Amino acid sequence: MHRLLALLLSCLAIGQIGAASVSSPFDPFEHEGRIVGGEETTIAAHPYQVSLQNKRGSHFCGGSLVSKNIVVTAAHCLQSYKVSNIRVRLGSTLYNEGGILVEVEALAYHEGYSTSTLEYDVGILKLAQDVEETDDIRYIKLAEVTPANGTPAVVTGWGTKCYFWCMSLPKTLQEVIVYILDWRTCGSEDYKYGPIVYDTMVCAYEKGKDACQGDSGGPLVADDELVGIVSWGYGCASSLMPGVYADVATLREWILNTIKSLE
Ligand code: ARG
């Protein structure tokens, strides 16, 4: 029950941001700003980052460009969308203008994806047109190995800058540095989640810093490789509640096979 509540509240679609909450209203990081606790960045620094939006231009999730026509994102971002309703903005620091806006030809998400446990929270989009690499648009490599505990990683997105009363999204891309925790450590007694962290997940933590609502599907990057996909968390930047990501190294085979099947 606890688990279900956490997932529901931490992964509400962007339309419902701020509608509910589970952590204390006196969260000290509430007003700290950016992704949560991060700072403004540019697309040139993270040229693999894309924004998934609906036809009306509302950003609902992030994603990562991995080849000329494939975006990797979270399964929970795609669940309730038809391809015809999704647009992908690439090559812009601002989610609402600039760069290029591309339509989607096909989508797929993992057969093992579970809405209750969020295991296998990975999906891909095939773009309706090929995009060339530029200074602001680049393909990122999929990690083959999950980085060791303590490896610094950067998470980026246009998600909310706090968990409470953050109704609007920042227009400028935000970044924050967090540190890798493998799923066992993340589910250990050193943190607060316990056995709800599974082997298809990897965590990243730093006090007062985290991804948040609207960052889902977006990239967690270490050593220029895509290591994680923003998936869930209990609140955002809550003490001893790391950000949880789909583990790209573990899900890599599925990603590669699914890309092939969509060709
Ligand atoms: N599920 C959220 C989304 O759909 C992302 C939550 C990430 N939360 C966190 N504390 N790292 O945008």
For the CA atoms, what is the radius of gyration?
16 Å
What is the residue-averaged pLDDT?
A: 89
**Separate helix tally:** 4
Strand content: 25-35%
Distance between the termini: 41 Å
User: Strand order within the widest sheet?
Assistant: 9-10-11-14-13-12
Keywords: Disulfide bond, Hydrolase, Protease, Secreted, Serine protease, Signal, Zymogen
Organism: Drosophila willistoni (Fruit fly)
Catalytic activity: Preferential cleavage: Arg-|-Xaa, Lys-|-Xaa
InterPro entries: Peptidase_S1, Peptidase_S1_PA, Peptidase_S1_PA_chymotrypsin, Peptidase_S1A, Trypsin_dom, TRYPSIN_HIS, TRYPSIN_SER
Furnish the topology, listing elements before pairings:
Blueprint: H1 2-10, E1 39-40, E2 49-53, E3 59-67, E4 70-73, H2 75-78, E5 87-90, E6 100-109, E7 123-127, E8 141-142, E9 152-157, E10 174-181, H3 183-186, E11 201-205, E12 219-222, E13 225-232, E14 243-247, H4 248-262
The protein binds arginine (ARG).
Arginine (ARG) binds next to strand 13.
Task: Report what the structure shows.
It is a single chain. This protein has 263 residues and is of the alpha+beta class. The protein has 2 domains: 47-139 and 252-262, Trypsin-like serine proteases (Thrombin, subunit H); 140-249, Trypsin-like serine proteases (Thrombin, subunit H, Beta Barrel), CATH 2.40.10.10. It is 12% helix and 29% strand. It is built from 4 helices and 14 strands. Strands 9-10-11-14-13-12 form a 6-stranded antiparallel barrel. Strand 3 and strand 4 form a beta hairpin. The model is unreliable at 1-10 and 12-34 (pLDDT under 50). Bound molecules: arginine.
